[in-house]
Amino acid sequence: AEAAELRARLRAVRHTVLVLSGKGGVGKSTFSALLAHGLAADETKQVALLDIDICGPSIPKMMGLEGEQVHQSGSGWSPVYVEENLGVMSVGFLLSSPDDAVIWRGPKKNGLIKQFLRDVDWGEVDYLIVDTPPGTSDEHLSIVQYLSATHIDGAVIVTTPQEVSLQDVRKEINFCRKVKLPIIGVVENMSGFVCPKCKNESQIFPPTTGGAEKMCQNLNVSLLGKVPLDPQIGKSCDRGQSFLAEAPESPATLSYRNIIQRIQEYCEQQHFQEEKIM
After folding, report:
1. How many domains does the chain have?
2. Of the residues 113, 149, 170, 177, which has the fewest C-beta atoms closer than 10 A?
3. DSSP-H helix ranges across the chain
4. What domain range is 187 assigned to?
């Protein structure tokens, strides 16, 4: 009955993409926010961004929605909209202050994730982007388990170039394989920094073991692209603005656009193959 309820609610969601990383601080929420903005740039597409980072919900701040509240209607919770075609849901909207700590055990977190999937009235959605916390435990198992009643296109895994990050990302890839979650590919974030004045490139996080490229070759996973560091990304996130719109000529924006295009192509291909089978 529960699976049927989730299936009924999410029937109108065409593509679901999870954004994962075993490591904290690699820019996963930033990537989720910019992926949502990039997809919603096409006004014919309806995009939803679900933040299941229960203890560290940063999506409301990044999307310029801090202080917003969730509204209830006869058909369930209404998402908070950034644009007409970009809706957001996060535990951050349920807190009385952005500084409130969420001190919950696993079952309560899992219950809220289920509630987000079952009770939020997304309507017709082309892309549902799910921003997850670091790790491979409660929230990840819950979202995969609940969404297995419907359909997940796959996961995008975010890393930085250094071995400390790659070590945890290998665990995340292993997790995806164990729970049979398809991997769309890996994004190497903070991949070098080009000085805007002298144009010299510096490796802020040196890829001592070959970075994401070598890891992807070893594990037979696609590398979707490398995003260079740009201080403007952090500033845009703090202001709740889209970096892609604020710095359209930045090398990081061009990299993001290529990655987003590859994700779209992957999802469309999946959809085409499913229709062929049916």
Report:
1. 1
2. 177
3. 2-10, 28-40, 59-62, 106-119, 138-147, 163-178, 211-219, 231-239, 243-246, 251-277
4. 1-277
